[in-house]
Design a protein that fits this description.
The protein is an alpha/beta fold. It has nine helices and twelve strands. Pfam families: Usp (PF00582).
Amino acid sequence: MTRPITAGIDGTEESLAALHWAAREAVRRGLPLRVVHAWTFEPGGAVETGDRATQEQWVRDSVDEAARTVRDRHAELSVSTDVHEGDAVETLTALAAESEMLVLGSRGHGRIIGFLVGSVGQQVIVGARRPIVFVRAGDRASQEVAGHEIVVGQQGDPEDSAAALGFAFETAARRGATVRAVRAWALPPVFAYSPSSLQLLDEAGGLEPFEQKALAAALAPWRERYPDVHVVEHVEMGSAGQVLLSVSGTAQLMVVGRRARRTAVGTRIGSVAYGVLHHADCPVAVVPPA
């Protein structure tokens, strides 16, 4: 079964940028594009009349118009539309499960955090079983140029980042781009050292060489699978979020794994994904574990 790339739109500038990003990616991957909108009836809201049928028609017309714009730009692309009345989180999470990826708009950083990342988007990330890509307003095809990299964060053991690395390598292969694999490290507290860990560090020649070997081991199977993809191994001391953001300025796309945690006020995404989503200067893909 061929999975489409799904773009969720809501009429904002950010969601339309996401739509065009999704269309370009669908063309690269030879996949169909599905344009979706989840809406709820708002008496006297979006249109002059409070009639449900009129509002639904207004929504459908808007979605059809958005689909026409990408068909005009990409004649070879198969485009379908899907309008759902109901909760946006439930709708988008369900549609993501049927998709190669879900692409949404993001307002990024600023005094007001975009509602997609702040509420709807964060909840979709937590529940989705497929990659979610967030795109800001102003994203342009010209930003996807040769020399700009696919940046991916790697941490832990090889299997911990396998899904994110796989997504990054496949995307880079489709674009002819370089993968910059980033592994950040910090000095552990004294009590974290144990005789066995000290022996591993001693055998590796120290902390940084140990981290470099760990990154190389995680990348090995993906280098073998994608031999034509150029790879830059980036190991740096610092917090993962800060190190990733420091290289986002020349990235076509940043890829991070998803780590969700439960709190007293609900499930939240990890701090690295949260920080990158709000401050990266490029689209961000959040990839759930395989």
